[in-house]
Amino acid sequence: MSKIKKIETLASTKYLSLYSADYINRKGDLRNWTIASRKTKETIENNFFNNEDDKIDAVVVIARHIEEDKLIVIRQFRVPINDYVIELPAGLVDGDESFEEAVKRELKEETGLDLISIDKEETKEKVYVSAGMTDESIALVRCTCNGVVSNENLEDDEDIEVIMLSKSEARELIKSNENIDVKALLAIQNFILS
User: Fold this and answer.
1) What pLDDT is attached to residue 54?
2) Which of 60, 91, 149, 171 is found 20 to 30 A from 182 (Cα to Cα)?
3) Which domains does the chain have, with CATH numbers?
4) Model's pTM, two decimal places?
């Protein structure tokens, strides 16, 4: 049974909306929560009240360059922090695109590199990014890639530098004062230990 009783739209933009959700807490009291979502109100209501399956919003790519044996990360400008942050290549899943198609497209777009294969054993097809604030879910995809780094496929609003990390470079990056996304930090730590 849904604990959420009502959803109302607070604000809506092309890529993100804010919703007000009335819910019942564990003591039976009516409370309110603000949810950031990439989904329409109709989709959220179908997920919450009709138990319809919820597709992932985005892919996050943990790629290892097979010839260089290096982890691929990016340094990207992010408006919410008005600074650059170390991240993993990532992007929204377009329309009816599969997560595999999104991985291939985003890896090429953001890095210029070509997807070789996805490690299905080490890939999680649906995880939540920050469930206290948003319903955004991602496929966290471990894969291999090859090719040459390029920025010729970037979108106009993407300010990205590709970094290929050896294990020693990864150790130094973690010790640095760089802004690092938590998903990237965990991937870098895992890469060092592998």
Assistant:
1) 81
2) 149
3) 4-49 (no CATH), 58-193 (3.90.79.10)
4) 0.92
